[in-house]
Design brief:
It is built from ten helices and ten strands. It has 400 residues and is of the alpha/beta class. The protein has a four-stranded mixed beta sheet with strand order 4-3-6-8, with no helix packed on it. A hairpin with a 3-residue loop joins strand 9 (376-387) and strand 10.
Length: 400
């Protein structure tokens, strides 16, 4: 059925059919309560046999492709499918036994259950659980994973937080060495690292002819705001506001330091800057990172296209992890090389919807690269955990 209709359509048909089968079984149960046993037997038999057809033509191929061929034993979808498969075998087996028990003499007397009503009711309950699990699998595989994932520069935030503390320590060391030029230089480092290129005070603050920024040019404040916005979580917001206040104090104290005429004038504000930097990093930024991850934020990969020695536009990496392409949407210039790297044990592929490129099977640590030489929109998917048109594990590359 997947070959005829496609993965998503087959799943849609199967989900609708499972709900109808459950409704049919409930109708059969009602007929039994009305003592219309012949009609009850006919309905239950039809439902069980129809389900057997769906198992053979939809569920088994889907399970094989996702779990076995894709070597997927982790992840919520794979675990739900494994549980669903085990329970499904039990329920279908018992249901077939009940049909044979009721409608044939094939079951030897010693294997014929006496309290058949209890077994039938238990089977109906387990079938209901099975359908609920199926709905869960459908939701996780085709709906949840297609929702936008909150991504933020968590790595950059942690790195800038560590740099903040390092340069505050270096500032203190400069005062201990009684070097006013060094104090001015590290003061400039702190201001530029915190504010970034868009900051009001960004620049050559010590007027030595060199504009020095030990950060990434974006600034710690901007990284902090990006994480708080992506998390959209009250705890992260509160922590970010607190750290933001500490960073503002550091900038204010640093600007005041620039007017110092001697190292003695800097001792007290430098000590305060060091204390604020310690709090902002160890207590604030690490707590924000933890809270943001707990709120569902994932690491935003670095999207900078690195220049290569061969003179082409460069290369950028897409990571295959947690049954997602990260980033799932990417815009790059013409002649950029994209590298897909599998970062988990499950097997993946990076396969273009139009068959333009195909990585083949990628096990843990395997990489595949393709250079995009023409502008356009290139959707792709994992053959084991996704499908064309953005189903499941899928992504899009826009070449400009």
């Amino acid at each position: 059925m997947q070959a005829l209709f496609g993965l998503r359509t087959a799943a849609d048909i199967n989900l609708a059919a499972q709900l109808l089968l459950l409704a049919g079984l409930l109708v059969g149960f009602s007929l039994a309560r009305q003592k219309r046993f012949a009609a009850h037997g006919n309905v239950q038999t039809a439902m069980v046999l129809l389900n057997l057809i769906l198992i053979v033509f939809v569920m088994v191929p889907s399970f094989y492709g996702y779990v076995i061929a894709g070597e997927s034993t982790t992840g919520r979808v794979a675990q739900l499918m494994i549980g669903h498969g085990i329970l499904g075998i039990v329920v279908e087996g018992v249901a077939l036994y009940l049909i044979l028990r009721m409608r044939t003499e094939w079951i030897p007397n010693r294997f014929r259950v006496a309290n058949i009503k209890l077994v039938m009711r238990a089977t109906l309950v387990l079938w209901t659980v099975l359908v609920v699990l199926g709905v869960g699998i459908y939701t996780e595989r085709y709906l949840s994973q297609n929702q936008p994932v909150a991504r933020a520069p968590l790595l950059e935030l942690r790195q800038l937080g560590a740099d903040l503390y390092v340069h505050a320590v270096e500032l203190e060391d400069a005062t201990a060495r009684d070097s006013l030029p060094a104090v001015m230089r590290h003061t400039e480092h702190l201001i530029n690292l915190i504010e970034g290129k868009e900051g009001l005070h960004y620049g050559d603050n010590d007027f030595d002819g060199y504009m020095e920024d030990p950060g990434d040019g974006i600034g710690l404040i901007a990284r902090l705001d990006a994480v708080a916005t992506a998390a959209a979580d009250p705890e992260v917001t509160v922590r970010a506001n607190e750290v933001g206040g500490q960073l503002d104090q550091i900038v204010t104290l640093s600007i005041d330091l620039l007017g110092a005429r001697s190292v003695e004038e800097t001792t007290t504000p430098v000590a305060e800057i060091l204390n604020l930097a310690r709090q902002a990093n160890s207590l604030g930024i690490f707590g924000i990172d933890f809270a943001a991850r707990a709120a569902g934020v994932v690491e935003a990969p670095s999207l900078g296209v690195a220049a290569t020695a061969t003179g082409d536009a460069g290369r950028v990496t897409i990571h295959e992890d947690e049954f997602l392409f990260s980033p799932s949407e990417l815009t790059i210039p013409v002649d950029t090389t994209v590298v897909w790297v599998n970062d988990e044990r499950a097997k993946h592929t990076a396969s273009a919807d139009d068959a333009l490129f195909d990585s083949g099977d990628q096990s843990l640590g395997d990489s595949y690269s393709y250079t995009f030489s023409e502008p356009g929109i290139y959707p792709y998917f994992c053959r084991y955990h996704g499908d064309v048109e953005g189903v499941g594990m899928a992504g899009t590359i826009v070449v400009e």
